[in-house]
């Protein structure tokens, strides 16, 4: 594992560029992954706790974190009829890059074919104050395809009393279905006092989260069920909201606890999964904490 103080990325002109290409295809009744990786990204052996039709994959970032100039590239393809469930081994850490202020960049492309499903459920990312973090994801869905993903950010190392008062986060998710844009979510959070304290910014909340499901129009009952999950998940001060999309559902969290965000998102996932995947949700052993 790379130790931060010994990172080659601290040497001017050097940086990691990790690459991961994952293709899931159906062989008989089994979803099988085809994996290509470039350090520091790796994928653990697939496992099938739900049976052969759903492949569970765990992505490992062996460097232990990103600094400015580092780049991670993901290319995920789910072929017709396949079902992939993907998470990460641990929280991602985004360190500052003083004095260069180069961004750490994550770029992902996703293609999900007709009758296929991808569930992208990573653990949270911790963005240190002073870090510049850019991520851009494009998800292309065929008719009859389903995608559910979440993204949880902790801004600053709040356990050390750190506030996110320097640096920036730029995030953009774009989802297309049948070559038509159905959801675009651009975000820009500047690390300063105005963003940190402003009611239209973070409102002194270090944790923000987004869950989106896209694949088919959702009835109002799904929205109500997602809202009803929030009171039981909440342990700390925080706010939650649910919105219908053109062909899906969107959940937002702003608060003080990654665990509250995770509990709520998991509860929503448990509500939605029987509808789009015709099977109950199964909690990962990696999340047992």
Could you please describe the fold and organization of this structure?
With 289 residues, the protein is mainly beta. It has a domain of 186 residues. Strands 3, 4, 6, 7, 9, 10, 12, 15, 16 and 17 form a 10-stranded mixed sheet that branches. Strands 2-1-5-8-11-13-14 form a 7-stranded mixed sheet, with no helix packed on it. Helix 2 runs antiparallel to helix 4. It is globular. The N terminus is likely disordered.
Low-pLDDT sequence parts? 1-12
* Helix proportion: 10-25%
Say what oligomer this is.
Answer: single chain
- The global form is globular
What class would the helix/strand composition place it in? mainly beta
What is the gyration radius calculated from CA atoms? 19 Å
Strand content: 35-45%
């Amino acid at each position: 594992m790379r130790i931060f103080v010994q990172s080659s990325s601290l040497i001017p002109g050097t940086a990691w560029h990790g690459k991961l290409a994952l293709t899931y295809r159906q062989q008989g009744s089994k979803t099988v992954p085809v994996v290509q990786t470039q350090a520091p990204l790796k994928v653990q052996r697939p496992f099938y706790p739900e049976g052969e039709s759903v492949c569970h994959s765990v992505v490992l970032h062996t460097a232990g974190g990103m600094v400015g100039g580092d780049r991670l590239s993901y290319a995920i393809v789910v072929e017709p009829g396949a079902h992939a469930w993907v998470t990460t081994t641990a929280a991602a850490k985004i360190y500052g890059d003083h004095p260069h202020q180069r961004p750490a960049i994550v770029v992902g492309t996703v293609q999900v074919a007709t009758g296929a499903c991808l569930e992208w459920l990573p653990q949270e990312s911790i963005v240190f104050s002073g870090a510049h973090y850019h991520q851009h994801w494009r998800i292309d869905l065929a008719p009859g395809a389903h995608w559910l993903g979440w993204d949880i950010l902790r801004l600053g190392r709040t356990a050390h009393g750190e506030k996110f008062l320097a640096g920036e986060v730029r995030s953009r998710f774009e989802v297309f279905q049948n070559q038509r844009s159905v959801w675009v979510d651009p975000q820009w959070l500047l690390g300063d006092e105005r963003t940190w304290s402003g009611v239209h910014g973070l409102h002194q909340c270090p944790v923000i989260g987004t869950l989106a499901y896209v694949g088919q129009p959702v009835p109002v009952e799904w929205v109500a069920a997602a809202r009803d999950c929030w009171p039981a998940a909440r342990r700390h001060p925080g706010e939650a909201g649910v919105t219908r999309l053109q062909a899906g559902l969107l959940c937002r969290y702003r608060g003080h606890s990654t665990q509250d965000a995770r509990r709520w998102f998991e509860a929503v996932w448990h509500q939605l999964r029987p509808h789009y995947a015709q099977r109950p949700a199964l909690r990962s052993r990696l999340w047992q904490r």
